[in-house]
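Work Package 4 report. The design task specified in the project plan requires that, given a folded chain encoded as structure tokens, an amino acid be chosen for each position. We show below one input record used in the internal validation round.
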């Protein structure tokens, strides 16, 4: 995982995102999962997201992804859910028989940030120590 650079920033942001299929239906067959992975490649290119890993159980999905800070985590979820649902319904029309209301994904989601470098205690101590000892050498986070 490398630090990425935008025009006016450097960032290393990784999210673990999880959300279920509507009504927790076990619809994520191997064929559906492969299609989601293909759709994800197009999402990556269009929105400058990096979907680093996709894992699925039969009724929910987990993503490990990275994105520019201009994208709020909720926006990433909305983009992924709306585009994949639309494309899945186009490619697999029989899915609409399983799900009424025209939605593939459930409304809720889980999201957390993931870091390769730091841990909570180190950052907490660093912030707590700010301004207490001016002779102390600054901790390098990046």
């Amino acid at each position: 995982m490398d630090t990425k650079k935008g025009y006016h920033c450097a960032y290393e942001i990784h999210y673990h995102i999880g959300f279920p299929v509507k009504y927790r239906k076990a619809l994520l067959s191997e064929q559906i999962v492969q299609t989601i992975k293909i759709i994800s490649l197009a999402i990556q290119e269009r929105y400058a997201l990096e979907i680093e890993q996709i894992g699925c159980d039969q009724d929910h999905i987990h993503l490990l992804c990275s994105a520019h800070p201009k994208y709020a985590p909720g926006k990433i979820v909305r983009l992924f859910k709306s585009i994949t649902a639309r494309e899945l319904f186009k490619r697999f029309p029989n899915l609409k028989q399983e799900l009424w209301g025209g939605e593939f994904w459930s409304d809720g989601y889980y999201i957390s940030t993931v870091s390769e470098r730091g841990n909570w205690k180190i950052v907490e101590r660093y912030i707590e120590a700010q301004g207490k000892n001016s002779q102390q050498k600054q901790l390098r986070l990046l």
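The radius of gyration is 19 Å. Validation will be extended to a larger panel in the next phase.
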